Amino acid sequence: MKYKRDPELIRDVLGKKIQFILGDMACVYGGLLAGCSFFGGYPITPASEVTEGMARMLPRVKGTYMQMEDEIGSIASVIGASWGGAKSMTATSGPGFSLMMENYGFAVMTETPCVIVNVQRTGPSTGQPTLGAQGDMMQAKWGTHGDFEAIALAPSNVQECMDFTIDAFNLAEKYRNPVCVMADGEIGHLRERVVVPDEKDIKIVDRVPATIDKKKFIPFTNSQTRNSKVPDFPTFGTGYHTYVTGLTHNERGFPATDKQPDHEKLVKRITSKITDDIDKITNVEKLYLDDAKTVFVTYGASARPAESAMEMARAKGKKVGMLRLKLVWPFPYKEIQKLASNVDEIIVPEMNLGQIVHPVREYVEGQCKVVSAPKIGGEMHLPHELYKYLEGK
Amino acid sequence: MKKEIRICGFGGQGVILSGFIFGKAASVFMKYNAVQSQSYGPEARGGAARSEVIVSDEKIGYPRPTSVDFFIAMSQEAFDTYRKDIRKDTVIVIDPELVPKHKIGRPVYKVHAQKIAEKLGNKIVTNIVMVGAATAIFDVLKHDAVREAVIDSVPKKFIEINKRAFDEGLEAGKNARNEL
Amino acid sequence: MPEVRTADKLKKKYLREEMWPTIFCNGCGNGVVLDYAFWAIEELDLDMDKTVFVSGIGCSSRLPGYINADGLHTTHGRSIAFATGIKAANPDLNIIIFTGDGDCTGIGGNHFIHAARRNIDVTVILINNFTYGMTGGQLAPTAPLGSIATTAPYGNIEHPFDICELAKALGANYVARWSVTYPYQPIKSVKEAIQKKGFSMIEFLSPCPTAYGRRNKLGDIKKHWKWYDDNTILIEEYNKIMEYGTDEEKEKIKNKIQLGVFQDIEKPGFFEQYEKLVERLQTKKDKGMKK
Q1: pLDDT tens across C128-183, in order?
Q2: Domain boundaries, position A299
Q3: Nearest residue in chain A measured CA to CA from C117
Q4: A295 shares a domain with A171
Q5: Chain B meets chain C (3+ C-beta pairs below 8 A)
Q6: A310 lies in a domain?
Q7: Beta strands B108-110 and B178-179: pairing type?
Q8: Chain A neighbors of B33, CB-CB under 8 A
């Protein structure tokens, strides 16, 4: 389908401005509002409601929904659609995310904007399909082979499922990189109020299309029209005759597999195009950090019980705060470094045996105590379980 | 104000929808914050299903109940399974036809929701009768807000019967007594 | 009208010269297949600005690199799924997929099956050399019984994959097989496949003297070509013999690989159906609004 984002039609399909919906569904809303025109997916619990929502809504806004044969095909179709000019997205959970890893790297290497919503569960393997967890936080960063920069957001509530999906599209378009929305089964299957933003309040970022003379255009180098390491995008069918390959390629896109300088130049550009902008990309929420001596560093669903535990502690006069990573990758290391020099202790509650605690420790560099507070088995921490970590402080 | 509601029954009975209606009433048709979560067994029909709602005038952190204020049961299995962690003063509402073994040594509100639904012509609205009754018994949410939420949440062609189910439930709730 | 009359001119027009020389060995059939595609494209006067070449991993999957057009050189086995996305985003594009026997029938089998079943409007040109040539001659799903591969050093005991039979069974709109020893029929076939709405697939038997031939006493390219002559038969001839031939004649041909066009039907493609679905939803909505 040739698609043109039609705000009126989208709003008509989404319905009322204030709704009480599932986190999974909010990801669908976010996708539609961002102008997603292709969704390729494969059902998997607890992300199936995203796929179902797209199946219902995307054709109604004249976008294309396809249920692919598996998750490998899903991410492949999403990358293909992006080169065909679509804003594209898929949704999955742990096992499906594992299957996507090779093509996730392909998207990175070919600088393809696309969005992966991961409503996380746990593993290893099939694990606990119906229950939430934060099983893929490291997979998003290290799951595909080679060196790359991940961009990943972690919503803690249903509104953020929508907002962060829009953000994910914008980041993907801006940096020409796949972007993950790392939701989880808890938030994905939670219903809360969402407020659908007015059109004037939505920021939409589009990739910069290639416009310069076709003979002068160089597809895989710094932009030739702007001061940016992100090249302009030669959409297929616009006459640029671009060769796009997952092999190490030179600036023209041609294989340069045995050339060390070409590889280094390419990989350093596609990683630094993101890390150079770390200050612009970093997105954290700070609660009571002015006086806090003990701080929860959290993300996603685990921020919810952590906030409750923090409020319990504050009510008793304990100086507890919270730093919530809305964007987990690229890792907001400057925030962690700053925090470490101001507090006595950082507690990292996670619904895994400790993933994000590792980069936290790396950047704390011994400046304060770092405690991992894991909980596995498909349940969130109870607030009082986390409160125990604060006792005596 | 923070209230936690647990609604349980067997899969397919509409307990998820019931929780959804309370959540929507509170957060869309009133100014409260609300979260609704659910859990069910792997089977799509049958088995014990549970839907939980938290309504609060403050930001809701931990989204699952820790201290259930209101407990509604629509099947024996669910009543037996999901009662374990409720408080001594938790308000209990059951349908005595669906939960025949409800004598547990403490008072409960009895609402003949299924009978009322059958009289209305369709057993399928049992859950909405229960929603109406619970709305009256709990008296936390505005009756009109819940009514609006019912209308907003059921298929268009079933609005009428659901409105009646809600209203009859509301009456039944008003007349229900907390008894052993 | 076609302006090109010589192979030289053809190559100038369609090849991406910066990419020369190719990685292909002497005797490789990939160039022959590319030639068929160029002639077909030339005769159809296909707009190269609106044609995208997609491939996976393997020698044949390197072909898009040598074509002066948009090309997406994807991961192993996944080209058809990538192509599905491109077509979805812009149905006006012609999509031609170059894939190999390992890429398409091995690791990519599932994507092939479902694209054919959905009747996605793409053209798959499958170059079957019976081996994983790029990586040194490992066993392919299409390798004949008894043939030698580095991973089947004592002879292949697996039954080879007949991908055309599969495509037919899936209801693909166009299915054909040729060997690179045929000069003209394949060009006509590629033209038909490109023009066909819905899923079209042509399999080419194509020699790999380096990885397959050497190990199977077909290292000399002439011998390789002769093997095709001895072991293939045109479908029309095959059917005739099977109907009217003697038992002896039947016995002689029964194990030969058939060549020709196996299926040529018109079934609506996925994206045609999808457009109708979208229209239906809009009409429903408009009607709803009038009420």
Answers
A1: 999 999 999 999 999 999 999 999 999 999 999 999 999 999 999 999 999 999 99
A2: 285-388
A3: A69
A4: no
A5: no
A6: yes
A7: antiparallel
A8: 192-193
